[in-house]
Write a structure and sequence with these properties.
Blueprint lengths: L3 E4 L6 H12 L1 E5 H11 L2 H11 L6 H13 L6 E5 L5 H13 L6 E6 L2 H14 L7 H25 L2 E5 L4 H18 L4 E4 L6 H11 L3 E4 H11 L2 H11 L6 H13 L7 E4 L5 H12 L7 E6 L2 H11 L12 H24 L3 E5 L4 H19 L1
Parallel strand pairs: 1-3, 1-4, 2-3, 4-5, 6-8, 6-9, 7-8, 9-10
Helix pairs in contact: 1-8, 2-3, 2-4, 6-7, 9-16, 10-11, 14-15
Length: about 400
């Protein structure tokens, strides 16, 4: 999901540019002013609440704003993302937007600010006032609106500058010239947007084989906590020795092990296009951990794949692997195999439900030749990436 906030003073041309952006990138348009007017016209509960506040000459509370934005988001599930026009206007609203997007397991990709000199803004707004017969838009009123914008929104600009996603665009020129400048920023941001994939499946489903193939095809950094832990075990590190005791029993190792290993991998690949997580997170707690790790980097999980393989097929594959040079020490004991399968069923299935609620999970038939399964995964991944970008 790709989300943009379009920023700028009254008269900067946000409305015009927003219409072009939503058409080009299939975004849902969110303008708090427009939504409020729609709710009032419909006579909804939220509209009636807002109307009573506005009629008193007061500002609509952030609580009402949040509710109308949430409603708009929930009714636009087919969009590739959202374009926020003139929101957030305050630092408080910036934090509110962060929270709303976290609930959706997504983030704001860029805040684009249209910069226009005040004399040109005054000219535009006075001309608009004449065309629309808005007698209340006098020179003094317009000056006050511009001053209010400056005082309230400068801190918002600093908020997004600190996050590294604030971009200034020259808002003077023809509509097409300005739109080209904006799309240049958007395309640049798209190239910086990480694509993070999580691949699930029971032990023996072929996650490792398929994960490496897919990561290589789409130039993603492959992260397998199991492989990283086995490397630590081979090195005889303190973490490796501690992890070995858990893995030999078919148990999940403590979460702090995985956090350290994943953080190290992410930090060592600053040039990455994204990351491919094989079999992690395996628990709800780990799902929250991964969200937190990626959120710190202004990113999120793009899509999740679950390879469906029958239990008997998994057992057959694992016992077959135990007789090859690719065997794992936990393949040698049928009791450990069963325990690992039970662990997946009991602990990982709830994680699949967690991602299903976020509507970014894809179910894949994991039975067939390596090439057939890879083809199914690739087709679904292409669709997921289009939606993510």
């Amino acid at each position: 999901m790709f989300n943009i906030a379009l920023f700028g003073p009254p008269g900067a041309g946000k409305g015009t540019q927003s219409r072009k952006l939503i058409e080009k990138y299939n975004l849902a348009y969110i303008s708090t002013g427009d939504i409020l007017r729609e709710e009032i016209a419909e006579g909804s509960d939220l509209g009636l609440k807002a109307k009573s506040v506005i009629e008193k000459g007061e500002l609509v509370s952030d609580e009402i704003i949040v509710q109308i934005i949430e409603k708009k988001i929930q009714t636009n599930t087919e969009a590739n993302g959202f374009l926020f026009d003139g929101f957030p206007r305050t630092v408080v609203q910036a934090y509110i937007l962060e929270g709303l997007l976290i609930k959706m397991n997504t983030t704001l990709n860029c805040m684009i600010s249209l910069e226009v000199p005040q004399d040109i803004l005054m000219q535009r707004m006075l001309e608009r006032a004449k065309k629309e017969n808005r007698a209340d838009d006098t020179v003094d009123v317009i000056k006050n609106r511009l001053e209010e914008y400056k005082n309230k929104t400068v801190p918002v600009a600093e908020f997004y500058k600190d996050k590294g996603i604030y971009y200034v665009v020259d808002g003077v020129g023809t509509v097409d010239d300005i739109f080209e400048r904006i799309t240049n920023v958007v395309e640049h941001t798209l190239t910086k947007t990480w694509l993070n994939v999580v691949l699930y499946g029971p032990p023996g489903s072929g996650k490792g084989t398929q994960g490496k193939l897919l990561a290589d095809k789409y130039n993603l950094v492959y992260i397998s906590t199991g492989s990283l832990l086995r490397r630590e075990i081979e090195k005889g590190t303190q973490m490796g020795l501690a992890a070995k005791e858990y893995m030999e029993k078919g148990d999940i190792v403590p979460d702090e092990f995985a956090i350290k290993l994943i953080e190290k991998q992410i930090k060592s690949h600053p040039e990455a296009n994204g990351f491919f997580f094989k079999g992690f997170p395996r628990t709800i707690v780990q799902a929250y951990i991964l969200d937190g790790l990626l959120r710190r980097l202004n990113s999120s999980v793009s899509c999740v794949f679950n390879m469906n393989v029958p239990t008997l097929e998994s057992i057959k594959r694992l016992t077959t692997r135990s007789k090859t040079d690719k065997k794992r020490y936990y393949d040698m004991n049928i009791d450990v195999i069963v325990r690992r399968l039970e662990s997946f069923e009991n602990q990982t299935k709830p994680v699949l439900n967690y991602y299903a609620k976020q509507k970014n999970i894809y179910q894949i038939d994991g039975v067939g030749s390596e090439e057939e399964v890879f083809q199914r995964l690739s087709e679904k991944l292409e669709l997921a990436f289009k939606h993510a970008r």
